[in-house]
Each structure stands twice: as structure tokens, then as C-alpha cells.
Specification:
This protein is an alpha+beta fold. The protein has helices at about 5-15, 20-30, 35-40, 45, 85-95; strands at about 20, 65-70, 75-80. The chain has one domain (about 5-95). The structure holds zinc ion (ZN).
Length: about 100
């Protein structure tokens, strides 16, 4: 299996789970994280410090953003804190 196929498979799996994280975004959109966040109207909130991590309440910035995910009709975010990532994975697993 070539690299492109692997990436596509990974992306499909991610989309199925409703998870979008920085690694996947980078793989698919290069460095268009800003464009993506603007698309979902999250960029403004993040750059103005209005967005907080669902789990620890830490202020989300472009550099500590770990993932963006749908959460009961809204879009939530999680920071890259070592204690938040496992909580996020557990949470997203339970939601599905
Ligand atoms: Zn957090």
C-alpha cells in the first residue's frame, strides 16, 4: 500500500469518527489550519482567546490546539495537555 492510500484510509477513519486533529489537517491541507478554522468560524474565537479546552478549561491558542471535534451540535476543542488527550480520546470513543 502506498503512502497516499494509507493517508486516505486514515483520513476516512478520522472523518467517520468525527475527529479532526492537527496531524490529519497537516497531512491533508498542508499548513491551511488557519483556513480550516476560519471555515468553521473558530479562528476568530481562538485568536481572541475566547475558546477554552473542554476538559481543563485552558485557553486555546493555535499552538496548543490538539483537536477540533463535534460535540452535541456544537464544535468543541481540546488542548495538547498530556492529561487532556487521553480524556478526549476516551470521550470521543464513548460518544460513538
Ligand atoms: Zn486541556
Amino acid at each position: 500500500m502506498n503512502k497516499e492510500m494509507t493517508m486516505l484510509k486514515k483520513m476516512k477513519h478520522t472523518m467517520k469518527r468525527g475527529l479532526i486533529n492537527k496531524e490529519n489537517l497537516k497531512a491533508v491541507h498542508d499548513d491551511d489550519l488557519e483556513g480550516f478554522l476560519k471555515n468553521i468560524s473558530l479562528y476568530q474565537n481562538i485568536t481572541s482567546g475566547k475558546t477554552r479546552c473542554k476538559f481543563c478549561g485552558e485557553k486555546i491558542t493555535i499552538s496548543n490546539l490538539y483537536a477540533v471535534f463535534p460535540d452535541s451540535g456544537t464544535i468543541n476543542v481540546v488542548c495538547n495537555n498530556k492529561s487532556c488527550i487521553p480524556q478526549f480520546l476516551d470521550y470521543s470513543g464513548r460518544v460513538q
